[in-house]
Amino acid sequence: MSDLLERLRGRGWRMTSQRRVVAEVLDGDHVHLTADEVHARAAGRLPEISRATVYNTLGEMVALGEIIEVSTDGRAKRYDPNAHHAHQHLVCTSCGTIRDVHPTGDPLSDLPAAERFGFTVSAFEVTYRGLCPDCSA
Amino acid sequence: MSDLLERLRGRGWRMTSQRRVVAEVLDGDHVHLTADEVHARAAGRLPEISRATVYNTLGEMVALGEIIEVSTDGRAKRYDPNAHHAHQHLVCTSCGTIRDVHPTGDPLSDLPAAERFGFTVSAFEVTYRGLCPDCSA
DNA sequence: TCTTGACTTGGACACAGTCCATCGTAGGAT
DNA sequence: ATCCTACGATGGACTGTGTCCAAGTCAAGA
């Protein structure tokens, strides 16, 4: 994930081996790891990395808008590196697998003013649920 | 919430004072309490009610489809008694207030087959986010 | 009124995440 | 190349949310 590392460096981040490893672990499409999964994979490359550092680093990346925090199951939050292309999520109700999806249509235009209760609505998330091919077999 | 109590009784539920109080606490529109909030309010009427009973009762009501579990903030789950009218949620990003909303449009028809990855998609949730009137003032 | 199995209780436990004092080090200064 | 120092890493304690379990209690049918 040299892209992400470059952007972070450009923002004045001090580059440490821990941050490098966390960024590398998060590279790829359809990646939605929990903080502990990130920690486990990072520890594969850098055995002494602490949980606190992983939490700190993920939190900073989220604050910088470089990764997205997703909580689709009410359990552990998951971290999605695909922060620069708007997308929604499709979740398997059986095994929990998550895919990034791109619905057409704009939910914001589907919310009438009378249904906004005076809110200034600025964002939305859609979560689709169903059975993945493996679980419906 | 005699409605809910009636339906539960009709399903063979043993009616206890604890269950009655939990159902009563959940009565109303735009009610989205956490389990601990339900416990606190229930304890106002029935001081010895235990947390475990509140969790059990809420879990059973969810399983029966009489209330809906909502997790909009990655923190505590909230319980929504409005289970019999399809709706979505509008959440204040500042204070966390939740309102039930009814968007037009059907997100399911907005998800092309090519974007379903072989899933059998059966449900969806939309969460709108923004500032409520109090917080934007 | 009696009986019984479903329900409740409180406390221990598990998991996800945060906080903090201390130590280590990246990277600018010399 | 070395030194400095502020920023980052560490790990262990702590909090919040939720689950589990053995023992006691009670709703409701006989």
Automatic annotation (TrEMBL), chains A, B:
One of its GO terms (biological process) is regulation of secondary metabolite biosynthetic process. Zn(2+) binds at C92, C95, C132, C135. Its cofactor is Zn(2+). One of its GO terms (molecular function) is zinc ion binding. InterPro entries: FUR, Fur_C, WH-like_DNA-bd_sf, WH_DNA-bd_sf. Keywords: DNA-binding, Metal-binding, Repressor, Transcription, Transcription regulation, Zinc. The keyword RNA-binding does not apply. Binds 1 zinc ion per subunit. Pfam families: FUR. PANTHER family: HYDROGEN PEROXIDE SENSITIVE REPRESSOR, ZINC UPTAKE REGULATION PROTEIN. Belongs to the Fur family. This is Fur family transcriptional regulator, ferric uptake regulator.
